[in-house]
């Protein structure tokens, strides 16, 4: 991990936020955990990240209160996976706003396609990150589906702490 400034004691809340969220892997890991991919191997394979880098990031995210380790049964064996905390679930509007920004201000690769964010409560696509542009309700993970045409999937997000 490259050396950088420590903003954990910054008076500015943006600086303190960047102290926790400033590494791009953090938001990508939160995205995948909200998609229900909280097992180490699923994260490693989906993100194409080395085990060492992923281990360090996960440890830091647990320490920062973004993720928690949760036991699950794998046959007769108890294992652990990562689940989103309320702090991670509160990043949903930021993730959705980043997706909207990316579609508007970056060039779509040839194999890409529009990622629709469907608010399952009203069934409509939203064009805002925090409040549904159709019905005005606050958007929460358990009520969101992301349609990713480049993967040919519809992914329903999970609530904070869920093991979808």
Automatic annotation (TrEMBL):
Protein keywords: DNA-binding, Transcription, Transcription regulation
Molecular function, one GO term: DNA binding
Domain HTH hxlR-type as annotated: residue spans: 12-110
SUPFAM superfamilies, per database record: Winged helix' DNA-binding domain (SSF46785)
Protein name from the UniProt record: Transcriptional regulator, HxlR family
Species per Swiss-Prot/TrEMBL record: Brevibacterium aurantiacum
């Amino acid at each position: 991990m490259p050396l950088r400034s420590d903003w954990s004691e910054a008076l500015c809340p943006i600086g303190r936020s960047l102290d926790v969220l400033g590494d791009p892997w953090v938001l990508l890991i939160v995205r995948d955990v909200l998609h229900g991919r909280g097992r180490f191997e699923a994260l490693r394979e989906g993100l194409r990240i080395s085990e060492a880098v992923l281990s360090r990031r996960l440890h830091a995210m647990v320490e920062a209160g973004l993720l928690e380790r949760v036991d699950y049964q794998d046959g007769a064996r108890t294992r652990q996976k990562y689940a989103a905390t309320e702090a991670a679930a509160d990043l949903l509007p930021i993730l959705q706003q980043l997706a909207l920004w990316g579609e508007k201000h970056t060039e779509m690769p040839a194999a890409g396609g529009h990622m629709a964010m469907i608010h399952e409560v009203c069934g409509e696509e939203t064009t805002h990150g925090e409040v549904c542009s159709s019905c005005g309700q606050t958007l929460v993970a358990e009520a969101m589906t992301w349609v990713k045409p480049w993967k040919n999937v519809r992914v329903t997000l999970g609530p904070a702490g869920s093991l979808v």
